[in-house]
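User: Once you have settled down, look closely at the record that follows, taking as long as you need, and be ready to discuss the fold:
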Amino acid sequence: MPFSLISATVLRTRPIGVTPDYCPVCRRERRFRLTQAEYRRYFMCMDRGRHGHPHHELTCMTCDCRVERPVEERPITILPDPKSADFYEPELLPIVQTRIDNCTAMEQARKDDKLNTEQREEMIRHALFSFARVYDEETFERLSPVARLLIAIFALAVAIGGYFAWTQTGSWYAPALAALALVLGFLTLVYWIARQSPRKRVQLWLAQALCPLDPSSAEIRQARAELQGSRMKAGFQIRTNKVLARIKKLKAKGFSCEPKAPY
């Protein structure tokens, strides 16, 4: 269940350090804040251990987009103290620099109007796969069991208070206010989570990454099919027409499809 108080799987994150990688939105090599993310199983607010394999979340220090990368690309035997996250930089496997060089070369080919069909497909595929895991994120996935319990206690207290006031006064005014407070509280919670979670921003990042390529419906569907083949929910949830509509809207607003200048 997405908001269970008894049993829940929660995405927990821990800052690690900084690292370079290729940013699909800035379309160049950038510095990223590096975070380890892993799912933890909770039962009655008690941590029952890790669920599945951890992964790395990289947040671009220029455009603030967030992408996922395998932990194997930056092997860390012992996670550093989060206090050192501002300056700690783990070693990279050669595959990371190879990806940066390849993406940079393809971007230069795009700017020179020398991009071939295979390179276009790879750039579209890279954008979708970079954001796929973040796109899969559920609304309450990062909400800890303790926070869920406190929210439930608050809601129960408001409901009991409204009922008690109604039994004492016989007026529906108090329970109506209690119901309004619960609705407003829930809407505020959802809004806050939507602002904190990258889930709602992925559509914009994906559109910004694909805008310079001006992809067709067939090209996006092909990349989605590969996501589906990898058993990633984003392959089924991403809607081609919505992506194209977002790209069209960006262009109508004068969004520059060219990358920002480096620092």
The two ends are 44 Å apart (CA to CA). Helices lie at 94-111, 117-135, 145-169, 173-196, 202-210, 217-229, 234-237, 240-252. The chain has a mean pLDDT of 80. The CA atoms of residues 30 and 141 lie 28 Å apart.
